[in-house]
Amino acid sequence: MLYFIGLGLADVDDITVKGLRIIKNCKEVYLETYTTILQVDQKTLEEYLGISIIAADRELVELSADKILTNARDYDIAFLVGGDPLSATTHTDLILRAVELNIPYKVIHNASIMNAIGSCGLQLYHFGETVSIVFWTDTWRPTSFCEKIVANRRRGLHTLCLLDIKIKEQDEASYMKKTKTYLPPRFMTTSQAASQILESAKELQVEDIINDKTLCVGAARIGWSDEKFITTTLRRMADEVDLGRPLHSLVIAGQLHPLEIDYLKIHTIESSFDQLALEHNQSLSH
């Protein structure tokens, strides 16, 4: 059996009882390391579980998936994922390949950013399509994510923005060399994401829908011991807010319910938040 086991959002205490029982009975345990990070490192996880773990970066999974799958024919193999295994589509390919090879699999779910974002104060029922925002380069500045935010806001829906993570990114200068070198890890901040959203809105000429006064919520390290939320405008998020170390997420607010407004007041940095929320809602009602 090939098990996809969610580890939750933060540390070893987030592992489910079912997941823990299965992990301890598996012959091999892989830890996926390229879509998120945990509050604890691999060594701490190994000590808690009492097992050895194989770190699985994107390169290993893509190039050695056959080995993982082949071993799962004869043994129980665990593939550990921060958050929930299926909160993103990254691991769907591995599941589909297991199905093609008639290898049984099972998913052990856990908390993920997709449901834990409710901690920011916005109701999950009021969210539209989730978007991913990638780091821009000098030659690549995609804006399709902004089009989706616009579509959500036109329907009065909130948008969860998942921010880019670059772990073990190969140095372009080493592509032609036999020895690969990698760049230091990079994690997009809410400030960087807000800046790209505002620039995209200007380029797409949708500033009537997304602009400096649009309300947003910056979230950092949700589920960790030092999680943090800040509600402000996109402009202040871009220019003034520093939520500290990763991981960061950003929510662009849609139409706000009175209960949501009251909740957002808990962590807003705006002195006239009620007036901003009123103007925010009015901008979406036209």
UniProtKB/TrEMBL annotation:
<protein>
    <recommendedName>
        <fullName>diphthine methyl ester synthase</fullName>
        <ecNumber>2.1.1.314</ecNumber>
    </recommendedName>
</protein>
<feature type="binding site">
    <location>
        <position position="84"/>
    </location>
    <ligand>
        <name>S-adenosyl-L-methionine</name>
    </ligand>
</feature>
<dbReference type="InterPro" id="IPR014776">
    <property type="entry name" value="4pyrrole_Mease_sub2"/>
</dbReference>
<dbReference type="GO" id="GO:0017183">
    <property type="term" value="P:protein histidyl modification to diphthamide"/>
</dbReference>
<dbReference type="GO" id="GO:0032259">
    <property type="term" value="P:methylation"/>
</dbReference>
<feature type="binding site">
    <location>
        <begin position="112"/>
        <end position="113"/>
    </location>
    <ligand>
        <name>S-adenosyl-L-methionine</name>
    </ligand>
</feature>
<dbReference type="InterPro" id="IPR000878">
    <property type="entry name" value="4pyrrol_Mease"/>
</dbReference>
<keyword id="KW-0949">S-adenosyl-L-methionine</keyword>
<dbReference type="InterPro" id="IPR014777">
    <property type="entry name" value="4pyrrole_Mease_sub1"/>
</dbReference>
<comment type="similarity">
    <text>Belongs to the diphthine synthase family.</text>
</comment>
<comment type="function">
    <text>S-adenosyl-L-methionine-dependent methyltransferase that catalyzes four methylations of the modified target histidine residue in translation elongation factor 2 (EF-2), to form an intermediate called diphthine methyl ester. The four successive methylation reactions represent the second step of diphthamide biosynthesis.</text>
</comment>
<keyword id="KW-0808">Transferase</keyword>
<dbReference type="GO" id="GO:0141133">
    <property type="term" value="F:diphthine methyl ester synthase activity"/>
</dbReference>
<feature type="binding site">
    <location>
        <position position="9"/>
    </location>
    <ligand>
        <name>S-adenosyl-L-methionine</name>
    </ligand>
</feature>
<dbReference type="InterPro" id="IPR004551">
    <property type="entry name" value="Dphthn_synthase"/>
</dbReference>
<feature type="domain" description="Tetrapyrrole methylase">
    <location>
        <begin position="1"/>
        <end position="237"/>
    </location>
</feature>
<keyword id="KW-0489">Methyltransferase</keyword>
<feature type="binding site">
    <location>
        <position position="163"/>
    </location>
    <ligand>
        <name>S-adenosyl-L-methionine</name>
    </ligand>
</feature>
<dbReference type="Pfam" id="PF00590">
    <property type="entry name" value="TP_methylase"/>
</dbReference>
<comment type="pathway">
    <text>Protein modification; peptidyl-diphthamide biosynthesis.</text>
</comment>
<dbReference type="InterPro" id="IPR035996">
    <property type="entry name" value="4pyrrol_Methylase_sf"/>
</dbReference>
<feature type="binding site">
    <location>
        <position position="248"/>
    </location>
    <ligand>
        <name>S-adenosyl-L-methionine</name>
    </ligand>
</feature>
